[in-house]
Amino acid sequence: MSARGRCAKVLPSELNKVCPERDDPATHPRKMSDFEVVPNLQQSSSSVSRSRRKAHFPAGSNEKENLISWIPENIRKKECTYFVESSQTSDSGRIICECGYLREQHLDDAAKPPIFLGKEWDPSRHIQEMPTDAFGDIRFTGLGQKTGKYVRVSSDTPPRVIYHLMTQHWGLDPPNLLISVTGGAKNFVMKPRLKNIFRQGLVKVAQTTGAWIITGGSHAGVMKQVGEAVRDFILSCSHKEGEIVTIGIATWGTVYNRESLVCPMGGFPAEYVLDEENQGSLSCLDSNHSHFILVDDGTHGRYGVEIPLRTRLEKFISEQTKVKGGVAIKIPIVCVVLEGGPGTLDTIYNAITNGTPCVIVEGSGRVADVIAQVANLPVAKITIALIQKKLSVLFHDTYELFTESKLVEWTKKIQDIVRSRQLLTIFREGKYGQQDVDVAILQALFKASRNQDHFGRENWDHQLKLAVAWNRVDIARSEIFTDDHDWKPSDLHPVMAAALISNKPEFVKLFLEQGVRLKDFVTWDTLVYLYDNLAPSCLFHSKLQKVLLEEREHTAGSKMPRLQMHHVSQVLRELLGCSTQPLYPKPKHTERPRLSIPVPHIKLNVQGSSLRSLYKRSPGKVTFTMDPVRDLLIWAVVQNRKELAEIIWAQSQDCMAAALACSKILKELAKEEEDTDTTDDMLALAEEYEHKAIGVFTDCYRKDEERAQKLLTRVSEAWGKTTCLQLALEAKNMNFVSHGGVQAFLTKVWWGKLSVDNGLWQVITCMLFFPLLYTNLITFSREKRLQPLGCLARLRAFFTAPIVIFLMNILSYFTFLLLFAYVLMVDFQPTPSWREYLIYFWLFSLVCEETRQLLYDPDGLGVVKMASLYIKDFWNKLDICAILVFIAGLTCRLIPSTLYPGRIILSLAFIIFCLRLMHIFTVSKTLGPKIIIVKRMMKDVFFFLFLLAVWVVSFGVAKQAILIHNEERVEWLFRGVVYHSYLTIFGQIPSYIDGVNFNIDQCSPNGTDPYKPKCPETNADNKKPIFPEWLTVILLCLYLLFTNILLLNLLIAMFNYTFQQVQEHTDQIWKFQRHDLIEEYHGRPPAPPPLILLNHLQLLLQRGLLRRPATHHKLKEKLEKNEEAALLSWEMYLKESYLQHQQCQEKQNTEQMIRDIAQRVDVLAELLDLDRVKRTGVVEQRLGSLEDQVHQSAQALRWMMQALRGNGFSPGEDVPPVGSSKALDTKEMELEGRPEESRPPYHVLARNLLYPGSHTLRFPVPDEKVPWEVDFPLYDPPAYSADHKDMAVQDPFSLSLESLLKINYNTMDGLIDRQSFHGLYAVQDGLPLNPMGRTGLRGRGRLHCFGPNHALHPVVTRWRRNLDGSIIRKSLKKMLEVLVAQYPLSDVWALPGGSLEPGETLPLKLKWILRREFWPQFQNLLKQGTEVHKGYLDDPRNTDNAWVETVAISVHFDTQNDVEMKRLNSFLQGCDPELCIRWQVLDKRIPLHTNHKELLHKVSTLLGAYY
After folding, report:
1. Angle (deg, nearest 10), helices 539-555 and 565-576
2. Which of 421, 410, 238, 438 is nearest to 340 (CA)?
3. Residue in 364, 375, 413 with CA at minimum distance from that of residue 184
4. FRET label pair with 353: which of 27, 676, 1130, 1480, CA 20 to 30 Å apart?
5. Residues 1497, 1485: contact at Cβ < 8 Å?
């Protein structure tokens, strides 16, 4: 470490470079004045916005400057400022300071004469904090381009500063789980299988839950195992999946090659060399960690410096609340232990003490195996001898270093660890239900949460919130939704909303299985909440914001209006099409009553409110939606959430309409989506929903054709009063429309009331000779059902059939065209003839029909919308064009001076009218597809003309410029440039272009002849062309090459491609477009033009004079409610059948079968391995059981021999010994799973190592050494007595014999009662001895008096009742409610009682919660109560010489109308605003002091109540 902390100054312009080479420290020593002391945490103005956080810090200059300015202001390092020579030397034999560094590695001022008082080196005085000089990006040389983050911090850095750095500047998202991995710091050997299981499980739990893994960060021991696990996972996954946050917290002074990390302006990146060969006693950083926090205390080579800061940081992170997916959870923490030594035991003990669950990996060695092997034993069986034996086996190399006091300490800590079984999980290879480490880790957290004290059912809520946040539905199924707790569907509503928002479909499916009804869950305000929480990147979200912005501009308001469902409806109508009515109509009153269903303990903040507040009103005010499944389905589809939408669609009743609507929405969104991948996903999902609709309709059509066709035309109220058929047409779902059932329905509509079995020739014949209708030539559909028609009815049914209307219109149109052609060619007179007038009349009828189509609005869309829909149709555009051209020609024709132009224009109109014939032929199965191909090819020709125009114009301009000089006639310019060039493509090559066939008589020399082109450039003498013939010939050849060969063949290829592409789907396209023609003639008046004017007159009379509503001719059918309900139930039944069939097909899929077989083989191989491990374990268990039985037999024989001796039977000399020494040795061992005694024989809380309210550590006292009668020579407890300055009466603070002799024990000492409920107690050296044994601490601690400190604890209870007054029962036992209080400066609840002051009858704490006038009455209640406990109380404040003794009195109110209970409730008060009082359900998980819970247990036993 000869270059510690060296770095030259770096200019701002060099920030993007690697930190430069350092100068020699001897020539450039640092001075203390170079460092500036700044406040600990300052909010830099350039801090990175949370919205711009990323997993890896960008290399941009702004972000670097932010980091460079923030870190020195808030992060410090430590430096030794006083060189004191140490008795030890460095590895190279040089003199070092007490801090471990060489003289030249100190500051310049540190090596000068002493500037501090005293010559002793004191870290508190001689080490100072300074701005850190090591931070930035770290890259491991030779190990790829992976870059991590690092920072050097002082050991006194507040955890909040480090957490701020990680989340705000390093861009880490707060974790859902904190995994602290601890264990052996040196390399150790693990079984290959156990190593693989650990690695796979650790990264799996980190990757699935979004956890942070925290280790020691060095390239050795357990840290190396974790790093390699992360490395293997990253190599096997994609970049997105392989992001696992692995944080190494190491000691700066023990990092080898750390000088390469020093750079005051930040290393971006700093190159670090991992050199294990030369590291010596130091350690290298692990290259597989992503972030490093290097803790500096100013020393060198001292391990363990980082442990306090790591503990504080982990505790701080675990206290943070993370809101993800609508669920607010405190970040849970779990400690995973592999192998380890004494330091690891301390870590486990501290974790258990702080309530952190620990997972011990058995088989990893040393401390982990010691704890694992005794974890299932009763605490009384864990003795010093047993621990000594375990250590001798597992620590055989270092066993001689364990002193007797160390063994005692280890035994005590292991006992305390094992005593907290709810926080301890042993991972055993092959244990049932624990094949993976990730399951063990999550089970440990649930186990700890389940055993944690909570009020009521909060622990179950907490577990479920954890599972949702981690997205581990497997854990939720196995650990939460069990028989131990009954979940009400309403209890799952908040987590259901959270699962929806965070896109966790498996949880949504699970909650639906657990009884959540969407009808109860989806309310009006719930929908508003869900849409408020749309992802900002969602296209639908941006469309909603656009609608809100438009509304704000329309209302001229400054504040953005709050999102309501009519805003959503406005966007949905744009997506679904105007044929649908608004799904969520705008309410008359914008403010509606809020909703209500109780939602406990969840924070889901949206615009100042939470989801919990949505469900807090009476059920009468809840506003439910019309179709909750539809609402959730739309919400999921607009966000392109495939799995979620599929689960919700499976719940839908109107499933076919829902699938088609989803397809339409997705296709419309895909048109506007900018991201190509998202567009592809949307189109794929739209196609999938179309296939779902086809699948359901196919099953329905197979079962019942008539009911299936009703589904097509049924008006769906839920989907905006539209139909399935209309939705499919709007979405252009050609596969659905071309389905055989849909086409059969369209054919049925096409034939009207005629039978579809009739031939076309029969219809035409009857149309021309209608009396044939009364013969059997034509059959009607009703007659096929044996329902005869009358004469007039047959006539009406025939002529109103769409096919007959179509044929009559064809006949009429052909007649119109023939007459029109005759007039144009034969009978076009200056004065119109009667034939021409007939054409005009005919055209007027066509105009009237087009007007009717334009104004026909059965859905109430409005004239503007109908006009836009009318214009969108290509054939309507053609009709308008033809009519307008005809009117223009007619206008010119009626003016004598423009008669001829009028005829020309009318001729053009005739062409357009003839083109209109193609629409008529679309109904033909033969011609219809060809017309579609022609339309597609017209688009190809249009784009081809752009390419052709480039060559035509370029060649034409060049040719004209070369051949002809200054042609001023525009018409001849156009001919020369465009027309002649275009004709050249078809072989009409100009004769003068090569000069061979040039004839001066065919052109005009000066361009004066209007009928001849201007002559090319010629010789003035002989009139011969002088232009370069060779150039024009070359240009002509190139032009013909590119146009005739290249472009024309390109056009042919385009036509061929279009033909093949369309030909594959021609049948579908034709079937799809066939609907438009059928629907047009289904709603068209029966009479053909010009007789159609009679129908128009009839419509005008009905609508204008009689005010009759318009008849709906669209393919819609409004069903009765009963019929519709039955139809939808039938559809839903067939949908379930379809889904089951799909699942069976997926299982029968070859690829799926191969995957299933491979998975089963893997499971089988794993089971075989587990079976081998289990067999080994079973053999060991059976041997242990056999030894135990031998030991028990030996004990029985020994008892028999003793009994025989007692009765006078003397044994012989050669009696064999009973039992072997080996069997006797196994007396200490016990089989796993032996239940522990219900109550420990000795006090436990009074032996906690850390005395409460102080930094004093007790002397460790194992269970076997508690009694005073047991010899304990090592016992040397510290002394501690607190000075209570606020107490008037207290025993002496010191333990001097003179002051102690003044105390009278075992009697009344003035006002102080020093008598024990347990009789006389011993007094030794002026101090009383705790009657329950040793505690590990002398003095009186925080108690007031030596000897017994008397207390009173009233236990006030009543029965828990329903609203009707009946007593609530659980497990057939009545349930109690107990009065509890939470006092100021306390985190836990307690019984309303406490220590009795000398001369007082009521505790001071009890007086705090009762008014003074009620004190005497409460004393009477105590006298009437039942004493449930009188004696010693296991209290953490107890010591060897002072302890608490209490009297617990049960005061129970048996009746609901008890007068005394009412008086008690009225006299409860809080003299302190922070004092809380409440009636709480009595349960073993109630969060009280442990000793108070024992008193409650006795009360519940006394009253026979549930506990």
Report:
1. 120
2. 410
3. 364
4. 1480
5. no
Residue 169 amino acid letter: H
**Amino acid at site 866:** M
Tokens for 1096? Answer: 């128009």
H-type alpha helices, 674-774: 676-703, 705-713, 724-730, 734-737, 740-751, 760-768
**Left, alpha or beta for 340 (phi > 0: left; psi -120 to 50: alpha)?**
left
Query: What's the token pair of residue 1113?
Result: 């001719």
pLDDT score, position 604: 34
Dist. CA 870–CA 855, nearest whole Å: 9
CA 795 – CA 960 distance, rounded (Å): 70
User: Tokens 């209640």 identify what position?
Assistant: 1421
User: What is the structure's pLDDT at 948?
Assistant: 86
Question: Is the Cβ–Cβ distance between 1036 and 984 less than 8 Å?
Answer: yes
Task: Identify whether the C-beta of residue 732 lies closer than 8 Å to the C-beta of residue 1072.
Answer: yes
Q: Could you give the angle at which helices 342-353 and 306-318 cross, rounded to 10 degrees?
A: 30
Distance CA 816, CA 1170 (A): 90
- CA proximity to 696, closest of 1134, 284, 1163: 1134
Going by C-alpha positions, the residue among 654, 641, 606 that lies closest to residue 1127 is 654
pLDDT band, residue 110 (cuts 50/70/90): low
DSSP codes joined into one string, 898-922: GHHHHHHHHHHHHHHHHHTHHHHGG
Tell me the one-letter amino acid at 87: S
Neighbours of 1017 (CB within 10 A): 12
* Share of the chain residues as helix, strand and coil, in percent rounded to the nearest 5: 50, 10, 40
Pairing of strands 358-361, 1347-1359: unpaired
What is the spatial distance between Cα 1200 and Cα 104, in angstroms, rounded to a whole number? 80
- Tokens of residue 527, six digits: 């929908």
Whether residue 446 contacts residue 485, with contact meaning beta carbons closer than 8 Å, is answered with no
The distance between the two most distant Cα atoms of the chain, rounded to a whole number of Å, is 168
Q: Return the sign of the alpha-carbon dihedral for residues 347, 349, 350, 355.
A: positive
- Whole-angstrom distance, CA of residue 100 vs CA of residue 300: 5
What CA–CA distance (Å, rounded) separates 521 from 524? 10
CA-to-CA dists, residue 1110 to 485, 579, 716, 852, angstroms? 61, 17, 21, 12
Residues 1270, 1297 contacting (CB under 8 angstroms) = no
425, amino acid identity = T
Q: Which helix (H) or strand (E) holds 247?
A: strand 245-251
Section 1071-1089 average pLDDT = 86
Torsion from C-alpha of 345, 350, 354, 357, nearest 10 degrees: -20
How far, in Å, CA of 659 to CA of 136, rounded? 53
Helix (H) or strand (E) holding 1351: strand 1347-1359
Give the tens place of pLDDT for each residue, 20-68: 343 443 333 333 333 333 333 333 333 333 333 333 334 456 777 888 8
**E-state strands within 566-665:** 605-606, 609-610
- The tokens describing 592, both together, are 């509606």
User: Is the separation of the CB atoms in 201 and 366 below 8 Å?
Assistant: no
CB-based contact 1467:1349 (threshold 8 Å): no
Residue 603's alpha-carbon distances to 7, 326, 616, 1234, 1269, in angstroms, are 49, 7, 14, 43, 56
Between helices 342-353 and 404-419, what is the axis angle to 10°? Answer: 40
| Cis previous bond, 1090, omega within 30 | yes
Q: What average pLDDT does the chain have?
A: 81
Distance CA 20, CA 1123 (A): 84
Both tokens of 549, joined, read 């912005």
* Tokens representing residue 1284 in the block: 């209570």
Neighbours of 466 (CB within 10 A): 25
User: Which residues are CB-contacts of 618 (< 8 A; sequence separation ≥ 6)?
Assistant: 596
Q: Positive or negative, the Cα torsion across 1106, 1107, 1109, 1110? A: positive
What's this model's pTM, rounded to 2 decimal places? Answer: 0.70
